[in-house]
Amino acid sequence: MSDIYSNLSQLGGDTVLPSNPEEAVLEHIQNPQADVDYNVRFTAPEFTTLCPMTGQPDYAHLVIDYVSGDWLVERKSLKFFLGAFRNHGALGLSV
Known about the structure:
Oligomer: single chain
Number of domains: 1
Largest sheet: 2 strands, antiparallel
CATH architecture: 2-Layer Sandwich
Distance between the termini: 31 Å
């Protein structure tokens, strides 16, 4: 594994989905092409969270776009962060 991945705690092994977003660890890696501006897109077509008022699931299709810089969001940690909302009540969630 490359040196840019050496400090990651979730990549390359078994990881348990956090029970809520506050427990989730959003990791980043050094961008090997930091001198080039480019768009990064992450899609989560099956994002779910619970309505804290009714307990019913709320669904969303998330598209996260950002322009790269010195760092990139590590995708597995982002998946786990978003997955932590599945059984968590979130009112007025805006990303």
